[in-house]
Amino acid sequence: MLSPRLALALITFSSVASAGDTLATRDPATYVPDLAVLAKPQSSELRELVERYTEDRERFQRFFSVPNSERYDRTFRAFYETWQTKLAALPVDGLGVEGRIDRTLLRAELTYELRVLARERKKCDELAALLPFAEGIAQLQESRRLLEPVDPKAAATTLNQLNRQLTDARKAIEAGLEKETPADATVKPLRPTKTIALRAAGRIETLSAALDGWFKFYDGYDPLFSWWADKPHMQLSDALKAYQQMLREKIVGVKKGEDEPIVGDPVGRDGLMEELEHEMIAYTPEELLEIANREFAWCDAEWRRTARELGLGDAWKAALEKSKNDYVAPGRQPELIRDLAREAIDYLQKNDLITVPPLAADTWRMRMMTAEAQKTSPFFLGGEEIYVSFPTAEMSHEDKLNSLRANNTHLAKATVFHELVPGHSLQFFMTERYQPHRKIFSTPFWVEGWALWWEFQLYARGYTSQDPLDRAGALFWRSHRCARIIFSLNFHLGKWTPQQCIDFLVERVGHDRHTATGEVRRSFNGSWSPLYQVGYMMGALQLRALHHELVEKGGMNLRDFHDRIMQGGAMPIEMVRARLRGDKLPADYKASWRFAE
Q1: Are residues 428 and 459 in the same domain?
Q2: Residues 380, 465: one domain?
Q3: CA dist list (Å): 592 to 428, 489, 547
Q4: Residues 201-234: pLDDT tens digits?
Q5: Rounded mean pLDDT of 389-410?
Q6: Count of alpha carbons within 13 Å of 300, Cβ hemisphere only?
Q7: Are 331 and 224 part of one and the same domain?
């Protein structure tokens, strides 16, 4: 195990960011790290093994452009199972702390990937009646990738057969749209749910891309192929687009000129339990809901204190409303974000809370978010580049006011450092430089939990809580993270509809309805994992428990604590704990940390 001081040295640059310096004033030499320190071994014994798995898996994923076809499933199942067998035979006796962590993480990853494969296979089976042509299109593309010779006449025949299958499926959907089925009906009606129809529409998009890629490979290069396949390809391609549009409009309810309805695809309790095991969270969904409500109670007490200090009695929504209406003038938001970011970095350095390399402090970038993007991201987002939400010229008057309120001065102060330094921007900077092989094990509990942990820290230190309006901004976000657990788990458990989730955010957190709608749309209509929204608060609580164990009780230096977390790379926080404690994990390790007791 590395000593704490050596571990710290591994992330020490020739100079750290100092208060007040920027790229315009700092000596360029300070951006070059100490090469002698970096030349020393610093990764796990299994780094190359994890990198090999990652590269091989990504190679397969690039080869198969239609996920979850029969050949895709067969190939990946064998791939994962063989890795499992060989990894199980790898002895742990000669491995140190880092190697055992990587072995544990890879073992968990393989188990999870096999479960996801089975889950996605089940979802595809549920689409079989709607997409009877899917496997045929996948086979065309896979045959091309396998460099098998194409028979132009047979290819045209196949395209015609697939088009007939699509036509029959569409007729069945149309029959299902009728209120009653005639007694002499020759077509068995299909009545898919909105969730199934949206899932089918998404898969059609993948199939259409695969079909066009297959056709373009031969078209024009093989004159006989073009002669036979051009028209049937065009007919099938057009039919796919029309079918996708029909599913979205007639079943899902998408209307031209309006925002897409929020539908989502709940994973159910079994799916949540699989996700929790993968994230190494030894709690049930029901237990997480209890923890969220307990944290909410703390927020409620703080809200009452804030409202009273503002002379508003217990009217916490009035306190929030007061903070929402304190915003900078249109066009001035970039300056506010710049100043808040520099203020946070200066605060970190003056209080010796974490190492901030000059390159990380000075080279983050800023971009303005479009009006369309703000429908799903009404607040700003961040990483190496921060995306700033603020009114744009083409917005309606109401939308402009909404955007101003949603990105007010006090909410911004509570989260600029969440998105930049020491939050996501610093995180991503460090994961590119230390233990980069662990990016495959990245988790929202580490990514979002780390950023929210800093909201905890700076609130407790008075940075965002001394002024009551700043406190209101911070409390909005903290309440929001409690609410994310509650509404997302209830949705995936099948207990709440998207509309109930929106109403909950409005009533319980104080969202304006447009930001609540954007939040729920982002959570369920995108590609986020089922536990992504849970990861913020639960990850922060894990770090709070670890801080209590190692810093408050164990005497570890606070800066060392934060630096060593960043040095370890992205992974479930239970593994962060094992690494910081120097635990040599057994071969059959299973997550058991009850961090919220």
Answers
A1: yes
A2: yes
A3: 28, 21, 18
A4: 999 999 999 999 999 999 999 999 999 999 999 9
A5: 90
A6: 8
A7: no
